[in-house]
Amino acid sequence: MHRVVGFFVVLNLCGTLCAQTKLKYYGIKSHYGFIIAHTPDLKPISQTNPYGFQVEMSSLKTSDKAWKTCFCYGRTGFSFAYFNYANPDVLGNSYNLNYFVEPYFTYKGPLKLSLRGSIGATYLDTIFDEESNPENVLFSTHLSFYLALSLNLNYHFNDKYALNLSANYNHISNGGQKQPNKGMNFPTLSIGIDRIIDYTPLRPKPEELKNYSRKWSYYFGAFASLRSADREAESTNHPLIGVMAGALKPLSGINGFNFGAELWYDWSDRKQVQQRELDDSSFSSAITLGHHFLVGDFYFLQQFGIYTTRPENIQSNWMYQRYSFWYRLANRWTIGASLIAYGRRADHMDGRLIYIIK
């Protein structure tokens, strides 16, 4: 407890000595949750309750330019989270460094509702080993990706402190770089407190700032990833490189639908074709159809992909889901990341560079 008190003494000094014109938040919170056994073979190692803590710093800008980024007030910042999976011999601990965006749904009065998306990197200190730790089919690389979605209630009991209660859905995976890679999904509840620097009440923005284009947009781009060749723990990573193109149609200020096509070449598939002497091509192509949210400069896409060509002896599924996050850097250039999944099984992640024509 004396460490927590000391933490907030430091934050009070920071508020006095380092005051800024924009709102600054410094926070600490605790987590407690459970692991989802999304396949039957995970049940034996999923009967624990992860717990941990998180420290973070963030800012909230109130300018019209910042507000138009998501047509809302929102915080952005960095957090460090530690999780203990209550199974030291098999699952160990994780250390997570993340970037997050947190738009507010409500901001009037002391009670505020927000949704946070987090993305970052995690270090796992206990991973799969064929001899010493064969049970851990969740993690096979020390460095992996961390994703989280959180629904938050923030209660400002004065202009300096806010109490927050959050429901969090956390996911850790190495993106298909090495196998086994079942990945961990673990919801948590968290409670914490924020120290706020230079708090000012948030006021409604003029309606004309919400104007949006109803015209079609067209995009094309490239994506790349690394995948393990044999889907085994010790296999070597191989590149996957692809191109894509499509169209985006707004339906409202934040909703729209999209369709397109993508083509990629997977050197890990080629390695499997060679090893297993298969009569398959390593090219895959698909048409995509889906929905997207456009919130200022952020795109959140949920798509179904239907294969037109694929290595059928390696990939038995004819359809997949793709979940993508794009951020517009400039007027047309956009960067992003996506996750491809088959039902409840995440397969791999990639990075994307997109050019959008409006």
Write the layout of secondary structure elements.
Layout: H1 2-17, E1 23-33, E2 51-60, H2 64-68, E3 74-84, E4 93-106, E5 111-124, E6 143-156, E7 161-173, E8 184-197, E9 217-228, E10 237-250, E11 255-266, H3 267-276, E12 283-295, E13 298-309, E14 319-328, E15 333-342, E16 345-357
Structure in words:
With 358 residues, this protein is mostly beta strands. It is built from three helices and 16 strands. The strands form two sheets. Strands 1-2-3-4-5-6-7-8 form an eight-stranded antiparallel beta barrel. It has helices spanning 2-17, 64-68, 267-276, and strands at residues 23-33, 51-60, 74-84, 93-106, 111-124, 143-156, 161-173, 184-197, 217-228, 237-250, 255-266, 283-295, 298-309, 319-328, 333-342, 345-357. This is Acyloxyacyl hydrolase. One of its GO terms (molecular function) is hydrolase activity. It comes from Aquimarina gracilis. Keywords: Hydrolase.
